[in-house]
Amino acid sequence: MIGALVAGITGSATVPTSYESIATANAASGGSSYLEFTSIPSTYAHLQIRGMWLNSVAGTTLNIQFNGDTGANYKNHYIYGSGAAASAGVGGSTTTVQIGYKNSNTNTYPDAIVADILDYSNTNKYTTGRSLDGSDENGSGHVEMQSSLWLNTAAITSIKIFAGSGNISQYSNFALYGIKAA
Amino acid sequence: MAAGATYEPIATTTFAGGTASTTFSSIPATYTDLVMVSFLRAGSTSSSYVIRFNSDSGSNYSNTVLYGDGTSPGSNRYSSQTSAYLTYYGFPTTASTFGTIVTHFQNYSNSTANKSFLSRSQNSNSGTDYLAGLWRSTAAINSITIYAGDTFASGSVVTLYGIKAA
């Protein structure tokens, strides 16, 4: 039985049709240097990347680039919680968008990610995004929110995902979704 | 390339008042992620909101928290807990005032990694917060029990969604 053991009412909802799975990307058994979504259709209003990743290098970022652009065309801002203090600042990299971070060097604690790329196919303005990620490690860990800007008016057709150091470890997985407008 | 509609409601609970917990059971493993949307008011005292998976009451839960009360931000950590927080500020008791909490459970049915999840919430009487949670278990999540420190007031609603990937 799928349901709820409650003293209240169990209801139902309509099934939305505007949130669609586009593709998935899973790390290989020996890890992957990068994962990539290609041939992204321009038929959606927004994109969302959801995933969890593992990495055996401590203090490593998870980054994305659009359309193979490796230039200094990205900007990032963040607010970060270390478990002891909150901080905020400008992201260090101008060649990537940061969407994740791993504190430890173990493959035990996944970093969970939800990243939104807004109005990604509009060719009249630069592309903005935001992401949430976090990995508690039972004694260490972090939570973080980021905003990003890609200084390019091209429609996004591909997204490359890679770690700042080391490979994306086995069992890491990402899914790309498209959100339709009315 | 697209696989069609992928964001589906699994179950909804609407509280009538006086209930302190509820369980979403027999969650199918057919989705990639789960999202739980909570719209909550507390019965009498400002209330905590915590979660357990698969009826595990061991000290296998932990949180890292980022919060702001309108004056200054902060961050805390809670390790080796018997349940995990879904909100730092809890949810309000004020009449007609509900807190909203959206919780993401990534890859909840995998059996190879501990389970990480993210939760964002707001309590208009106190502040807003964002949490990372951990359940130290490689078991697939097949049930979720949520608990109020007090009770869930009448009109509180929690819906569990499943998201399918291609």
Describe, in plain words, how this protein is organized in 3D.
Chain A is an all-beta fold and about 180 residues long. Chain A has one domain. Helices cover about 0% and strands about 50% of the residues of chain A. Chain A is built from no helices and 14 strands. In chain A, the strands form 2 sheets. Chain A has an 8-stranded antiparallel sheet with strand order 3-14-5-10-11-12-7-8, with no helix packed on it. In chain A, strands 4-13-6-9 form a 4-stranded antiparallel sheet, with no helix packed on it. In chain A, a hairpin with a 4-residue loop joins β11 and β12. Chain A is globular, with a radius of gyration of 18 Å. Chain B is mainly β and about 170 residues long. Chain B has one domain: Jelly Rolls (Sandwich), CATH 2.60.120. In chain B, about 0% of the residues lie in helices and about 55% in strands. In chain B, the strands form 2 sheets. In chain B, strands 1-12-3-8-9-10-5-6 form an 8-stranded antiparallel sheet, with no helix packed on it. In chain B, a hairpin with a 3-residue loop joins β9 and β10. Chain B is globular and about 40 Å long. The mean pLDDT of chain B is about 95. At the A-B interface, β1, β2, β3, β5 and β7 of A face β1, β2, β5, β6 and β9 of B.
Q: What attributes does this structure have?
A:
A: 182 residues; mainly beta; eight-stranded antiparallel beta sheet; 0% helix; globular; disordered N terminus; B: 166 residues; Jelly Rolls
